[in-house]
Design a protein that fits this description.
By secondary structure, the protein is mainly α. It is built from eleven helices and four strands; from the N terminus they run ββαααααβαααβααα.
């Protein structure tokens, strides 16, 4: 999943995950299926009403408007999402990270004729691959892109912590903890270190000492770090 940085009006950089091409294509197929199912259902209803041909065409044109305006309507009133985008956890945003307006969605929708309909999506795919920030021609003109809202999981988000070669554990009592408990400890510890929240680290220290029923002369920040390393040492050796 590619990343790109957007700049807000306050000149704050925000990392966004670009929706990958696979997710966008699957979302498009889902949306296309929804439109086809709607049109088939509409035709079946009209056939069941047994109206004369003139009335059928008039009603058909009226009822087909939601399918024709599907993308612009849903994206406008559903915060940049369609049913396909919702299923794939993607969303349209402006390049500065803000919510697009109707004009942005309208431009994307109009130019869909060029880069999706007329070229069977080939021009859209080529543009997305070349630009590298998730923009098809409609997005370039509208100043928008499509981002992924899927949660990215990295090694830093897991319980895993690098244990040096030849590491000697200090506290065998760490095995009293369950994986989910140690994951919570590591998450709170990493966040507290990043934000310099010493009170949280001290609370973790006190809670761990209480559970493990030990005494330690290590500083709270070093103690919690050692406990996490010890837990990884013992669980990796099991």
């Amino acid at each position: 999943m590619e990343e790109f940085q957007i700049e807000t009006a306050q000149n704050v950089g925000i990392q966004q995950n670009v929706a990958n091409l696979g997710d966008r294509m699957l979302g498009y197929l889902i949306d296309s299926l929804v439109i086809i199912v709607y049109l088939i259902a509409m035709i079946m209803v009209l056939a069941a009403l047994d109206l004369d041909l003139g009335d059928q065409w008039a009603i058909y044109l009226l009822l087909s408007l939601p399918a024709f305006l599907y993308y612009v309507l849903l994206e406008t009133f559903w915060n940049g999402k369609t049913i396909g985008k919702y299923a794939m956890k993607t969303r349209v945003v402006k390049m500065d990270g803000s919510k697009p307006g109707f004009g942005n969605y309208f431009v994307r929708w109009i130019l869909r004729i060029v880069d999706v309909s007329l070229t069977s999506g080939g021009l859209a795919v080529l543009s997305i691959l070349i630009r590298g920030n998730g923009q098809r021609i409609g997005d370039i003109a509208a100043g928008t892109t499509v981002i992924s809202e899927k949660t990215r999981i990295t090694i830093k988000d897991t319980i895993l912590k690098e244990v040096p070669e030849g590491y000697v554990p200090t506290y065998s009592q760490v095995t009293l903890f369950k994986d989910e408990e140690m994951q919570l400890i590591k998450t709170l510890y990493d966040e507290a270190r990043f934000k310099s929240q010493h009170n949280i680290i001290l609370s973790l220290h006190n809670k761990i000492v209480d559970v493990m029923q030990i005494e330690t002369k290590q500083k709270p920040i070093d103690f919690v770090d050692t406990v996490i390393k010890d837990y990884n040492y013992y669980t990796q050796k099991m």
